[in-house]
Design a protein that fits this description.
This protein is mostly helical. The protein has 10 helices and 4 strands. It has helices spanning about 5-25, 40-80, 85-175, 205-210, 215-225, 230-235, 240-245, 260-265, 270-280, 285-315, and strands spanning about 185-190, 195-200, 320, 325-330. It has a two-stranded antiparallel ribbon with strand order 1-2. The chain has a two-stranded antiparallel ribbon with strand order 3-4. Strand 1 and strand 2 form a beta hairpin. The N and C termini lie far apart (about 190 Å). Keywords: Coiled coil.
């Protein structure tokens, strides 16, 4: 045998040995490829162990086959010797049918009970729904009533706050003593849900005092309408201070009753301004006294100026008498004075 063939056989043998070693978990003999003599002791021991494992495997398989055959025979005997017969099967079938019928009857009875219970539940639910609807309706009415009362309460609170705020503004206005002082406007509750509206801000007392002038009649009427001042409350009011300056107090010329704020303000502007000042808290008499003092001082200055001019005119007027006995009256410019004339001043 050639050397290559011998090497190939050794490789195949070694591969088979490794597979057998892995299969039965046996340590393979050492790989001694240089020896050409017969098998070694390790190889024989490995071979014997492999044969022993094969024999054990064969015995195990044979035992399993015998057990399987015995089980098959036992099953066949049990089937052949079974006590079940045609009659017993029929009895079991009748028994099953009877139980099925009983179960169906019980099921029908239970179904009827459940249907009746369901109808009762539906009636109770319907009654409960009606009760809940009634209660919800009552609660809704109570909520609406509560909302109304809350809205009324808030409106009352806001109205009181506005009253307090206006009272503070009136108090501040009452301390005004000069025409250049700023007037603090009052707030009113606007209609149609417009909320609180504020009067004209940043105006001085002089701006309101000018309402005495007929050319500011529109301003006076607008202020009366904004603050909702009823002219019936002040037009015919008995007030000596206001009546003293009204021409309407003449009994020979009675004033007709006005039908609007504009007519009332045209007929009695002073009373209209006094009513406006009273509503804002402005001290009308203080500014009236200042106006009267100013008018009196102006009148006195005019009178003093006129007196001074009249006195000066009297001093200028002179009577001139010439040496020839002819007298002249008038100013010196009315006479062609000559060096021979002498002026004699006489009183008028």
């Amino acid at each position: 045998m050639s050397r290559p063939q011998t090497s190939s056989r050794r490789i195949q043998t070694r591969s088979a040995v490794k597979k057998a070693a892995r299969a039965w978990n046996i340590t393979p003999p050492p790989d001694d490829t240089e020896r050409d003599h017969g098998p070694t002791e390790e190889g024989l021991l490995f071979t014997s162990r492999c044969l022993l494992e094969v024999h054990e495997q064969v015995d195990s398989v044979r035992q399993e086959v015998q057990d399987l055959r015995a089980y098959q025979h036992r099953c066949r005997d049990e089937i052949a010797t079974s006590p079940l017969s045609q009659s017993s099967l029929e009895e079991r079938l009748h028994e099953i049918e009877g139980r099925t019928e009983t179960l169906e009857k019980a099921q029908d009875t239970k179904h009827a009970e459940l249907c009746e219970l369901l109808d009762n539940i539906k009636d109770e639910v319907a009654e409960l729904e009606n009760t809940v609807e009634e209660e919800v309706g009552k609660v809704g009415l109570e909520v609406v009533d509560l909302d109304g009362r809350m809205a009324a309460g808030f409106s009352e609170i806001n109205a009181r706050l506005d009253i307090i705020s206006n009272a503070m503004e009136i108090q501040r206005n009452s301390m005004a003593t000069r025409f250049y002082a700023t007037v603090h406007p009052l707030s009113i509750l606007g209609g149609n849900g417009a909320g609180v509206q504020q009067g004209v801000a940043g105006k001085t007392v002089q701006w309101y005092w000018k309402c005495h002038d007929p050319k500011y009649l529109n301003r006076l009427v607008n202020l009366h309408e904004f603050y909702s001042l009823d002219f019936n409350n002040w037009y015919n009011a008995s007030n000596s201070d206001s009546d003293s300056d009204d021409d309407s107090t003449d009994l020979n010329h009675p004033v007709p009753e006005p039908s609007s704020i504009r007519e009332a303000a045209q007929l009695r502007p002073k009373r209209a301004v006094m009513a406006l000042f009273s509503h804002l808290g402005l001290p009308y008499h203080v500014f009236e006294e200042q106006t009267e003092r100013s008018h009196f001082a102006l009148t006195e200055r005019k009178r003093a100026k006129n007196d001074e001019a009249e006195t000066k005119g009297r001093k200028i007027k002179q009577r001139y008498v010439g040496r020839d006995g002819i007298s002249f009256s008038g100013s010196p410019t009315d006479v062609n004075a000559s060096p021979t004339q002498s002026a004699v001043t006489t009183g008028d």
